Amino acid sequence: MSSLEPSGKVIVAEISLVPLVKGKVSMSDEIAIAFMAIKKTKGLKVTLTGMGTQVESSNLKSILAAVEAAHEAVEKIGVSRIISTIRIDQRLDKMHTLEDRIQAVTRKLVED
To answer: pTM of the prediction?
Structure first.
């Protein structure tokens, strides 16, 4: 896990890669390679989930560099097609991390 640069803003994103290999159903090997490429990207806090990789950064360039690194990593191992879905949430009015979002929902669950 890389540390975030102190800038007062946090951009969050979820990156989901679908590497297609002819004749292969499981993608865990390729996903692991993509995840490690994302994790090596400087300026990111990285969390693996069951449906994608969540990242936090103080700048958009790091997030886009992580997507590019993931694509390049799986391309190097011979993947014939890569489909990516990227959701980016750049909140401009205040700093709001992924953990802050989870805590906000958790507090509401306790209240009910």
So the answer is: 0.86
